[in-house]
Amino acid sequence: MSERVSRSEGVVYAIDYGTSNSLLGYVTKDRVFDPIPLDEEAEDPTVFRSVLYFPHQDMCFYGQKAVTEYAQNYGEGRLIRSVKKYLPSTRFVGSYIEDRVVRLEDLIGLFLLEMRKRANERLDLDVTSVVLGRPAKFSFDPTEDKMAEYRLKKAAEFAGFKHVEFLAEPIAAAFDMKKTLTEVKNVLVVDLGGGTSDFTVIRIGPDEFRQEDLLALGGVSIAGDLIDGRFVEEEVSPYFGANVRYRYPGSNNILKMPPVLKDCLCSPADIVQMRKGDHYEFFRQIRHMALSEEDQRHLNNLMVLSEDQLGFELYESVDRCKRGLSDSTASEFSFVYPEVDVMFTEGRSRFNQVIDAKIQQITDCLEETMKQSGLKSEDIDLVYCTGGTSKLFCIQEHLKSQFGEEKVVASGFFHSVVSGLCQYAQGLIESGGTSSWGQ
Known about the structure:
Number of strands: 20
CATH architecture of the domain at 12-183 and 412-431: 2-Layer Sandwich
Strand content: 15-25%
Shape: globular
CATH class of the domain at 12-183 and 412-431: Alpha Beta
Radius of gyration: 23 Å
Low-confidence stretches: 435-439
Helix content: 25-40%
Structural class: alpha+beta
Number of helices: 14
Largest sheet: 6 strands, mixed
């Protein structure tokens, strides 16, 4: 379909703002359009990485360009990623950009504004209405959940949207499936992204959706990011000093690296903060007290990782290894940089063992959602998977074992939510549910 639409047509955007990736589609009363390519530098231009990079406080890059510029500037400045997961946190007010604190709502608002500007330029329109996806639950605490949605709405308003409607992301995925159904089905939607794992049990078919068709909704703030952190903690951290043994000059006592080192490696943000914290000087000093050349090399890896601000690059390597294990029984982990050369083979069975506790928390949430629905596993007709984390082999195996392989359907892992948001937005326009939409 042509991206140009008549100025007389009311247009509504549908935005799937994700922890890791974001997409934007749009609709009119009569048409649903494909997602707009917002990032020509990305492998898939319709998938806009949820990343901001400030080389200084008066300049910002977005998406793949943010990643590229950050690497070219050797980690100088401030890289912002995965901020969506902080929406329900009362402790996270904002982030320092040089000497200025930028509120969380404004950081997300800047990103949504960039999405809106790029889409507006592409369509030559000024669109101010949006349907925004949100997790099934930002938090199990109702007050925190309400606050998170309020902050996201404020971010959308910062971006210039005057009319904002929310829809739970797993329900949006169900709307995407709806267009393929010819009869009513009991559907379990499994939406596993970077920040949250969401589940929806819904009765859906070709007819109009009713509120009573929503049988259960559940979610937990454990997904791809925490799985990556767990992998680093167990498998990668030894190459950066986690198992180092050292001895102070003049002492006979052999000491082990304190567990706090692993805490400093659990996310790119933690690696950034390590250089600013009290632990950094300690790590630097004991590099010369390590008992073996291998231990010294591992601590040197840690210093380079911290001093050159390579946390984001390290986690890119983690993600590549993890994705490889979805399709193969083994995958290579490779993180190579001047003075750093970390390579090893990770087996799928070992990986599953490492992340088992996180996966158990996700499947526990699934079981609780099923319990709320009042349905048994055999009552589910289809299991609809969306989100990159749902591709994990252990997740797919669990779903197939519980519900039957023939019932598990893989969607367009990144596009199903935005497609469903578009379907919902068009329904609102057609029903006149929001009279000012598209104006």
